[in-house]
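Lab notebook, bench 4. Still working through the backlog of constructs that have no structural model yet. Next entry is a single chain of 318 residues. Request: give me the structure tokens for it.
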Amino acid sequence: MTHDADPMNELHWLIDMVQTIEVGLVVLDRNFNIQLWNGFMENHSGISPNELKGDNLFQRFPELPADWLRQKMEQVFLLKNNVFISWEQRPYIFKFNNYRPITGRAEFMYQNITLLPLSSLSGTSHISMIIYDVTDIAINKMQLTAANEQLQQLNQRDELTQLFNRRHWQELVQQEFARFSRYQEPTSLLLVDIDRLKTINDQYGHVAGDRAIQHLAHLIGRNLRSTDMACRYGANAFALLLHHSNAEQTLQLAARLQSSLAQTPLQFNGEQLTFTFSAGVCPLDEECNSYDLWLDKADETLAKAKMAGRNQTILTNG
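Model written out:
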């Protein structure tokens, strides 16, 4: 009698474990009809096993990515291998609400899925889906990724102007110089320096000077194309790397910036502060055999504009 009871007890324990385990368990036959739907799935879907028994998975849940998931399952039947689906490939298969208190900000449950072949004496006739709730892991990883991206942005940006800082911008210039040697596409540097910023600092204070720097940085940002890159090059200087821009086009941009600055004076403590800038334009050509030389030529051209009386733009060798 004891020996007869043991298999029954083991079966009872097995059924109890399947129903109470904290992972989803779904068993499908070869036609994707539902044969088992455990307690985890019932709790999160609100649908009992009795309601689903024998129903086709894809007909009962039309919101599932049917073509994609069916292909994964056919792989399991054919190759008799496990298939793992990460939340990073697809955040979820079953869109269950997230009820975890720690990750309450997540709208839905992030899931890892394992597909397993279930073999009988006649071959692989069923497939098991194991659904793991990995919301905590997913949220933590996404928060860490976002924090790293934010830190990277901070390391690349000038705090006052939010343009690129000089170090990162020069890395981009190096890359562009290498690209030019292969493709010879027109590219130019435009260096801009605020004229007599010290006068603004002395007369109105350094806060006004900072506002002037921010004001010009804002105008530069408004006039940039998506492919252009600008940085705060010095205390009151800016550098622009302009893709697909020859000398004439770069001179036109400098003129637009000068016009914008003249038409939109800085508003500071009820006063309108007007100021100008000097600029140097240096197109990249084959005579520049290093990116350092390219930058040096642009610096020299800017210096010539300052010495020539300020509020003007000079072209390299022009």
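Notes after review: The chain has two domains: 2-141, 157-315. DSSP finds eleven helices and twelve strands in the chain. Flag for follow-up if needed.
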